[in-house]
Design brief:
CATH class: Alpha Beta
CATH architecture: 2-Layer Sandwich
Distance between the termini: 20 Å
Strand content: 15-25%
Helix content: 25-40%
Number of domains: 1
CATH topology: Nucleotidyltransferase, domain 5
Structural class: alpha/beta
Order of helices and strands: EEEHHHEHEHHHEE
Number of helices: 7
Radius of gyration: 19 Å
Largest sheet: 5 strands, mixed
CATH superfamily: Ribonuclease H-like superfamily/Ribonuclease H
Length: 216
């Protein structure tokens, strides 16, 4: 299997306003990026390189966010703003491709990471050099879960990774760990669907996977 474009699977951690710093906010506003992690995959979905940076936000990192991510205010206070990290990220991507516009971004649910990335570029007046076409890893994972006879409710990175037997290379809710895990999930989806199929087994049990191979 070979894609027409390289992929950058990325994950963001962000700040969130809240009225009471000791409670979970009713709405996570996701205002400023505090960490980015990314995995560059070639057209055969092989991992080429990774990128990881902490980012200094322009609003406080609350205890709620620290509890989720383990990222503290002290960890980010001396880090560059996104106006410096963004161009560095693009240089890293460009190092592994011939045309950054042809690279496809991929994220877990394009409702969070992609809009936040675009807003952040706009906030600092940076041109957005990537294509508008993005892969939604969560949607592809949902297809795999459904075809393999598993529940498609509450699909989180941890849930799907556990179903696939993928072990995280670090702590979940840290950007690079999540990005690499999402890349591994994407690799598994394409590997299982390429020339293979799922056959139902006993009721309530996951389906068995079979691969079709041509014999000459």
């Amino acid at each position: 299997m070979r894609l027409n474009n390289e992929l950058v699977v990325f994950d963001l951690e962000a700040t969130s306003n809240q009225e009471n710093a000791d409670e979970r906010p009713q709405i996570q506003t996701n205002n400023f990026i505090i960490e980015i992690g990314a995995a560059f995959l070639d057209r055969e979905l092989k991992l080429v390189d990774t990128f990881e940076r902490l980012v200094r936000p322009e609003e406080p990192i609350t205890p709620f966010i620290t509890e989720i991510t383990s990222i503290t205010p002290a960890m980010c206070e001396r880090q560059p703003l996104w106006k410096e990290i963004g161009p560095e990220f693009e240089v890293w991507v460009s190092r592994h491709c011939t045309n950054i516009k042809k690279v496809r971004l991929a994220a877990w649910g394009n409702y969070f990471d992609i809009p936040l990335l675009r807003r952040t570029y706009a906030r600092y007046g940076l041109p957005f050099s990537f294509s508008g076409t993005c892969f939604d890893v969560k949607t592809l994972a949902m297809a795999w879960m459904a075809l393999s006879g598993r529940s498609t409710d509450k699909l989180g990175v941890e849930t799907v990774a556990a179903a696939m037997g993928i072990q995280p290379e670090g702590r979940y809710h840290r950007a690079l760990t999540d990005a690499i895990t999402e890349a591994n999930i994407l690799q598994r989806v394409f590997a299982d669907l390429e020339g293979g199929f799922f056959a139902p087994g006993p009721p309530g049990k996951p389906h068995s996977h079979f691969r079709v191979e041509r014999v000459t």
